[in-house]
From TrEMBL:
This is ABC transporter substrate-binding protein. The keyword ATP-binding does not apply. Belongs to the bacterial solute-binding protein 8 family. GO terms for cellular component: outer membrane-bounded periplasmic space. The keyword Transport applies. Residues 61-310 form the Fe/B12 periplasmic-binding domain. It is found in: Cell envelope. PROSITE patterns: FE_B12_PBP, PROKAR_LIPOPROTEIN.
Length: 310
């Protein structure tokens, strides 16, 4: 996928909505006739952004078309089909699940799903929703943690999802206090990523650990980053101006098979954060998403690099 949005945010496909608002949607359980395509006898009603949808109370064959595979996997559900971006992530183990896409209707039918989850921007949703109950979300309509709770509601595991969210917020906040005590209350942190000979700097809601650093830990974003990347989510820049955006600490989400030559330039090497040993390099494939599995990995990465905790 060479489209910029797909590349920058592989877990969104067409993520242009940037509002991170909480959701007060509720799901209710009731015994009903099975939804078409469902293998479960009992269903619940999920109040989706498009209205109520009957979904299996205990889904057995879930297809995730994009973005939310890590959320589903964390809730210990059975995924039979998953998007290619998620399938390639080293953070996940989908077992025998097959790669799927919204463009390949026949493949989805072959997998006989009883529940389908994806983005509201997926193509062919009218056809896909005839295969099995289909729940979609507009990216950014929920904050990254509220989104996990919403997935929990869809899967009839709201309590489990909520418990994890509350625990994670507490642990991340505590780690943030430790980090601020180590690096100073006023220290600034920048997150960048490289792809296709371009560099991108991120705001506070575009994965790559930004939600943890800025939202949960309360670490500071450099003013230049705040001006250019906070509202849109990311900003494209050249290696020549990179020093203007780098704070006291730098997180490099590095794409292994991309052009990383910028890290060999004198411009990069002379950045104070780099010279001071305050540049931490992460595997971009492990940093792309913001589901619980990825968030746990990111939190551990920050603990190890900022605090030296092994």
């Amino acid at each position: 996928m060479k489209n910029l949005k797909k590349t920058l945010l592989p877990f969104t496909i067409a993520a242009l909505a940037l509002a991170a608002c909480g959701s007060d949607e509720e799901s209710t359980s009731e015994n009903t006739e099975p939804a078409e395509g469902s293998s479960s006898e009992e269903t619940i009603t999920y109040e989706s952004e498009n209205g109520p949808i009957e979904v299996p109370a205990d889904p057995e064959r879930i297809v995730v078309l994009s973005t939310y595979a890590g959320n589903v996997l964390h809730l210990d559900e059975d995924i039979v089909g998953v998007d290619s971006w998620s399938a390639s992530s080293p953070n996940y183990d989908f077992g025998d699940a097959e790669e799927v896409s919204a463009e390949n209707i026949e493949k989805i039918i072959e997998l006989e799903p009883d529940l389908i989850i994806g983005l509201a921007s997926e193509p062919n949703l009218d056809q896909i929703s005839e295969i099995a109950p289909t729940v979609t979300f507009t990216y950014g309509a929920n904050s990254y943690l509220d989104q996990h709770i919403e997935i929990g509601k869809v899967l009839n595991k709201e309590e489990e999802a909520t418990e994890w969210v509350e625990d994670f917020k507490q642990r991340a906040a505590e780690t943030g206090e430790e980090i601020k005590a180590e690096i100073g209350e006023d220290a600034t942190v920048t997150v960048i990523e490289n792809f296709d000979k371009q560099l991108y700097v991120f705001g506070d809601n575009w994965a790559r650990g930004t939600e943890i650093l800025y939202q949960e830990m309360g670490l500071n974003m450099p003013e230049k980053v705040k001006e250019e990347a906070l509202e849109p989510g990311y900003y494209t820049l050249s290696s020549e101006v990179l020093p203007e955006f780098v704070g006291d600490y730098l997180i490099v989400s590095r794409v292994a098979d991309a052009d990383n030559s910028f890290m060999e330039t004198e411009t990069y090497k002379n950045i104070p954060a780099v010279q001071n040993g305050n540049a931490f390099v992460a595997d971009a494939e492990k940093f792309y998403f913001n589901d619980p599995i990825t968030l746990e990995y990111q939190l551990e990465f920050f603990e190890e690099n900022f605090l030296g905790n092994e």
